[in-house]
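Mods, move this if it's the wrong board.
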Amino acid sequence: MAGRHRLLLENAQQLVLVCGRGEEYLLRDGAAGLPVLRDASVVVGLDGCIKAVGQADVIRDQFSGATFEKVIDCSGKCVLPGLVDAHTHPVWAGDRVHEFAMKLAGASYMEIHQAGGGIHFTVEHTRKATEEELFNTFQHRLERMRRAGSTLVECKSGYGLNLETELKMLRVIERAKQSMDIGISSTYCGAHSVPKGKTATEATDDIINNHLPKLKELQLSGEIHVNNIDVFCEKGVFDLESTRRILQAGKDIGLQINFHGDELHPMKSAELGAELGARAISHLEEVSDEGITAMARAKCAAVLLPTTAYMLRLKQPQARKMLEEGVIVALGSDFNPNAYCFSMPMVMHLACVNMKMSMNEALVAATINAAYALGKSDTHGSIEAGKQGDLIIINSSRWEHLIYQFGGHEALINYVIVKGKVVYQNEMCGTMSSY
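Not the wrong board. Structure tokens:
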């Protein structure tokens, strides 16, 4: 196949496809037998999409007359799909390092929240920050996520709680979408907390009557492009009925439902999400058995966040039960001032150790299933012809090192590639072995 192409990765020791037959997602049994090619190559075209995947000698013959902008010899290395982080809060000002000491001393999440800390502390600082200040810190955070292998990230607003600041955050996210080589799924999360001076009902009315109509207007004008709507459905925050009203109103203007549910108290959020046709629900530490069954039936993804349960010392989400019941399980870092983790490899490690997932299940949850949770598994999450050329190369002869080496990704990830373009090259990998 003659012609010019953007990238050739050749001679990979292992090429982990994740999917080989165009699957939208993988359940437990599908994750058990991941397709892995040995001595394999990948070609990415000038349009940023994968043109061919296969054995190195077959690809060599098929593209014998072709030229490539870049060729990378992956001998002794592994190639995997770019990782997908299905839940983050990366746009904010004012860190909460002081609250970590309070948590270690025994203060609960809601105790800190009620004392004026938590979300409200971040809201105060984010409202004061300029758009430029927010963009600069956001850009830095995205770069750190990318260096840890994430090539598609869900990014929420939610530290404004008023229309002006929520839109400021969404503009920052839109700017990064347009200017950075990383995939972004944008989420409006104006119902992240009840603003000071308002009741939950007043906040709900404000979102439905003011925020969402403005959002629709800006979407139609092309100024911003928002993908998902999120609500923190929780005792003392937004109850089930308020959550229903906001999510339905968001769905009515074309947003995917992807919300926080059943984290600190059993709220029947999972049942509600299944009923409304939610694409995904996050957290689910307190989900009911009925909720798990409903999510499996509705093909609603469970975005599990092992960092949150770990840092807040919460009960771990029931990953094994969800997998056994046929739920689509995805993973996210929940990066935010309360759970400061950029690294999906560390999230996968915690998912295996604390939630008893297998390494195959964790990789599936951080690739194709996380992409499904964002409505993007047709273009992301696996190495298949026609999909976007988002890839990572690790300096190891076995892909499992990406999960096994807790915190080792900084020396292990050799290249991060988005749309066939190298966006990060780790010079350390030239001299260091994964062993």
